[in-house]
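PT: before anyone asks, these are the final sequences, not the draft ones from last week. 228 residues across everything. Please model them as a single complex and drop the result in this thread when it's through.
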Amino acid sequence: GDSVTQTEGLVTVTEGLPVKLNCTYQTTYLTIAFFWYVQYLNEAPQVLLKSSTDNKRTEHQGFHATLHKSSSSFHLQKSSAQLSDSALYYCALSEPSGSWQLIFGSGTQLTVMP
Amino acid sequence: GGIITQTPKFLIGQEGQKLTLKCQQNFNHDTMYWYRQDSGKGLRLIYYSITENDLQKGDLSEGYDASREKKSSFSLTVTSAQKNEMAVFLCASSIPQGTGNTLYFGEGSRLIVV
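LR: through. Structure below.
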């Protein structure tokens, strides 16, 4: 079945250094949308980025991601990690089936160290 | 803006007990969802509803019932609580956006089975 894979469960990075969270997917649909959600401790998950256009960079709050349908990827990147970026990050695939319901990856816990 | 309110924040029950979680949204969104959050497993869909009195099963619906009696509320019942069901349950709502729906989440309800 269709799926989303986040290979790293835990990522630790030093403040000021770049960070990359990997996300790949499998789908049978050509028209899709992709999301990154962030969940800070004891808070609700909230949308960080959304994209449905192939090869177009999307940016928000210093993070960026590009949907690459050729490699089935939507990796999240930031050039300089901040302590406040420490959180749980989910990537999610939205397909036309089931009213565009989301298929979530298993999540990556990002810890930014001083 | 709007808000999603989940009650209770913590629900403690005994094994075999029937337990109900409630969710209210004031976004006036049509579609509502219940997800289960387990560490390392991401968010898995239990039930969703595209309008009042509609119910659609997700991948994890076995052992759960849901009810959408009003547009603004969506409840989830664990029919017979088991210790391996201890998790955080997240309610969300969305409106159609063409390609992909952005979900807005509540802060979650933690189920503890003793």
